[in-house]
Amino acid sequence: MIGVRDLKLAYGKRVLFEEVNLNFTRGNCYGVIGANGAGKSTFLKILSGEIEPNKGNVDITPGERMAVLKQNQFQFDEETVLNTVLMGHNKMWKVMKEREMIYSLAEFTEEDGMRAGELEAEFGEMGGYTAESDAATFLSELGVNEEYHSSLMMDIPANLKVRVLLAQALFGNPDILLLDEPTNGLDIETISWLENFLADYENIVLVVSHDRHFLDAVCTHVVDVDRQKIKIFTGNYTFWYESSQLMARQVNDKNKKVEEKRQALIDFIARFSANASKSKQATSRKKALEKLTLEEIEPSYRKYPGIIFQPLREVGNQILNVEKLRKSVDGRVLFSDISFTINKGDKIALVSRDPLAVTSFFNIITANALADSGSYEWGSTVTHAYLPQENAEFFNTELNLMDWLRQYVPSHVNDVDEPFLRGFLGKMLFSGDDVTKMTNVLSGGEKVRCMISRMMLQNPNVILLDQPTNHLDLESIQSFNEQCTDYKGIVMLTSHDHTFMQTVANRIIEITPKGTIDRLMEFDEYLTDERVKAMKEELYS
Predict the structure, then answer these.
(1) For the chain, what is the mean pLDDT?
(2) Any long-range contacts for 139-148 (C-beta under 8 Å, 24+ apart)?
C-alpha cells in the first residue's frame, strides 16, 4: 500500500497541491488526470522519491518494490537491450552482478562459496533463473525483435528505446508500478497488449496518460489533480467525465428536485456498471463500482474549450477524388496506387503502418507537397481547413495572438474588430491579457489551440486532422472529439487516440505501398476484421 499524508508542494508562491491525504491499495489501477501544468508527473515523482515535498510524507509498505517508467532514453546507452530490462529489478540485478563477480574469481575461498550459496538461493527466489527469458518475452511482446536484444541501447532506433524502458518497468512483477505516458511511441497492437497486461495486473498501478481509451481499459479509479487538491474517484475516465458533467448540470439546474437528481445518478451508475462488466477489466475491478456512493461524485471545475466548426455552405456532390497517387522518400515507397472518392457524410480515419505516409498524403492534397504521380481534385463547393502535425512554420514571426489570428481571417468576413478576434481566441481559453502574448513563446498545447482557432475562422465544410490530440490536455481532446463527432461536414483524420478514431470515423481507408484498403465500418471493427488482416499482409509484403 502507498499512504500519502498531509502532502504539500509549492514552488515559491505557486502551490501545486496541499493537504493531500490518499491511500493507494493493491489490485487497483489509478489514472492520474489534470490540466497541463497541474502537477501529475510531479506527483508521481514525489511518490517515487525523486522529488521531496515541502510538507508531509509518503509511506510504502515495507518490502514492496516500486518500478518507474524512465523518461531518459540515453540513461542506458552503454547497456545491452536485454540488460537494460533486467536492471528494472534492481535488487535482482545487484545479486546477479555479485554472483558473476564471485564466480569470476581466480581463487575461490570457503567464504566465497558460502556467499555464492546465499546468492543462489536469493536469486532463485526472485525468479532469476528465468529472468533472461522473461525479459526477452516482454521485449518481443512490446515489438522489440530478438535481433535487437543483444544490441547496445545507443544503437537501436529511438522508437524502440521507449519500448525497452517500458519493458524495464514491467519486468519482475513490481508491487507498485508508476507509468508516465506509457503509450507514447506505441502502435495500436502494442497498446492493446499493454491494456490487457495492466487490466489483469494484481498490484498497484498509477498511470498518467492522455489516451482515454487506454485509461478506460485499465483504470479502476481516477486520481484528479485540480485546484491544489488531489482526490480519488471510483471508475474509469469516461465514468468520471460523464458523471462529473452530469453532476455539474444538475447543480446548475435549481428547478430539479434533490431526489430526482439522486435517482438520475443512481440510474447512471447502474448503466455504467453493466457496461463495465463487458470490458477487458477483470471481475474484481468491477466490484469497486459496486461500492460507489453518490457522495464520491463531484462536478468538474475544469474549463473545456469551445471548438465549433460552422460550415459556410454544405458540400456538393463532388468533394474529393483521388486517382493513383504515389509518393516515395529516399527510395522508400510511402504509398502507391491510392484511389478513392469522398462522399457526403463521410468521416474517414486514414491509417498506415508508416505514419509518414499519412502525413505526406495530407500534405499533397492540401497543396503543401507534390506527389510522384497521380492526381487529386477537390470539388468547387469545398472549403477545407487543415490541422498539420507540425506547426512550427506558422509561429516564426513576432506577433501577438490577436495579430497572428488576424492574418487568417477569410475574405468573406467584413467586420474584423477586436471583439470578433477575442471571441475565437476566447473559445480556445485565451482570455484577458492572454491575447497579447507573443506567439513565439507559446507552449505546444497553446500553439495547437491557436491552430484550431485558425481553422474555426475558415468556416470549413471539410476538416483534415493530422494527429489532432498531440500536445493537448484531456479537456481539449474531449471537446475536440465531441465537435468532430457532431460536425455536419466531412472529416479526414489520423490519430494515435483510439477513442477519437472509434467515435468519429464511419469509414476507414488504409494507405499502403501497394494500394488502399477502403471499408465502411467503425475503427474497432476494422482492427478485428479477418479479411482486412489478410489484405494487409499482401499489401505490406
Answers:
(1) 89
(2) 139/81, 139/82, 139/85, 139/163, 139/164, 139/167, 141/193, 142/166, 142/167, 142/186, 142/190, 142/193, 142/194, 143/186, 143/187, 143/189, 143/190, 144/81, 148/81
